[in-house]
Amino acid sequence: MEREAHFVTMKTINNFPKSSESNNGIHSLDAMLPRHPFLKGMKPEHLEIMAACAMQTRFEERQSIFREGGSANHFYLIQEGRVVMETEDEDRGIIPIQIIGPGDVLGWSWLFPPYYWQFDARALEPTTAVFFYGTRLREYCELDHDLGYELTKRMAAVIVKRLQATRRQLMRFSTLS
Q1: Distinct helix (H) and strand (E) counts, the chain
Q2: CA-closest candidate to residue 77, choices 47, 107, 45, 119
Q3: 54-176, which class in CATH?
Q4: pLDDT digits (tens, 9 = 90+) for 122-144
Q5: CB atoms near residue 81 (< 10 Å)
Q6: Please, which of 27, 63, 129, 174 could form a disulfide with 76 given CB 3.0 to 4.6 Å?
Q7: Where in 60-164 does DSSP place strands (E)?
Q8: On the CB side of 5, how many CA atoms lie within 13 Å of its CA?
């Protein structure tokens, strides 16, 4: 049964346009994805699925990427630039949680119900990233449990980093009170 599910996944993937062409000087996704720290070491068939669910994107300085409480149906691999994750406190205003940059992942909420963003994210400078359709990837994860397990392990590591950054910020703000 698993073999059949994998076949269906690969057949479906072949219907998506290939990402091997460069677009306005942006590197090929097929060439870039295996080198990104988040995807390094991933099986070629899983990278093919990831590429089928991806596209290049760009954010301008100060552009909002997503807002806390909004629907989380995608995520990003940051290639260039910096992004701040922040939250707003009624008494203290906007509290930065973590600044991320090239090689980092932005967004884990797409993989875990109820699929709502837990923070705000905003570009601090012009930023390029790879956008992934999280809803499509979740469907592939249901068909290919090895892919689902691999993405869950990798996203869990991202969540741990975010929790540690949040804890450090909470400790910093509690000592300032």
Answers
A1: 5, 8
A2: 107
A3: mainly beta
A4: 999 999 999 999 999 999 999 99
A5: 19
A6: 129
A7: 64-66, 74-80, 83-89, 93-100, 105-106, 120-123, 127-133
A8: 12
